[in-house]
């Protein structure tokens, strides 16, 4: 999976130099970040709507569209996939792969405290 996302990202970057009249990606990447972000939001909403409707095949198609637009937004913002993968690795060490860092911080920790990586927390708990 990561390989296809890298190929997609590389293709998006290559489109920066393509003629915007001939390349939709070239035209989109040259537009404003606001326009690209709007496309990301639209595609995310379409994924959610299709999921609620139970349209599995449409969820798949709309998710692919969402990933495309996220890659365009990353390219426009100077974000590399490796930057996102590093953040995902950092979070996995803190909370586990299937958890998201809480927006309000971690309960029981002050604002300047760093959460204990999950493996270390498990070792402490098992003592």
Sheet having the most strands: none
The coarse silhouette is globular
Proper CATH architecture of the largest domain: Orthogonal Bundle
How many domains would you count in the coordinates? 2
**CATH class designation of the largest domain:** Mainly Alpha
First-to-last CA distance: 38 Å
Mean pLDDT: 84
Fraction of residues in H or I helices: 55-70%
Classified in CATH, the superfamily of the largest domain is MazG-like
List segments where confidence is low: pLDDT < 50 over at least 5 consecutive residues: none
Strand content: under 5%
Supply the number of helical segments: 6
The structure class reads: mainly alpha
Report the strand count: 0
Helix-strand sequence: HHHHHH
| Rg estimate, integer Å | 19 Å
CATH topology of the largest domain: Helix Hairpins
């Amino acid at each position: 999976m990561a390989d296809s996302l890298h190929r997609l990202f590389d293709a998006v970057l290559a489109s920066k130099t393509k003629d915007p009249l001939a390349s939709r990606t070239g035209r989109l990447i040259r537009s404003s970040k606001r326009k690209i972000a709007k496309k990301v939001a639209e595609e995310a909403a379409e994924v959610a709507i299709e999921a609620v409707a139970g349209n599995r095949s449409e969820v798949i198609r709309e998710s692919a569209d969402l990933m495309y637009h996220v890659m365009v937004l990353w390219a426009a913002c100077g974000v590399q996939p490796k930057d996102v993968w590093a953040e995902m690795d950092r979070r996995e060490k803190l909370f586990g792969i299937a958890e998201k860092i809480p927006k309000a911080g971690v309960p029981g920790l002050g604002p300047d405290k760093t959460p204990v990586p999950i493996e270390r927390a498990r070792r402490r708990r098992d003592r």
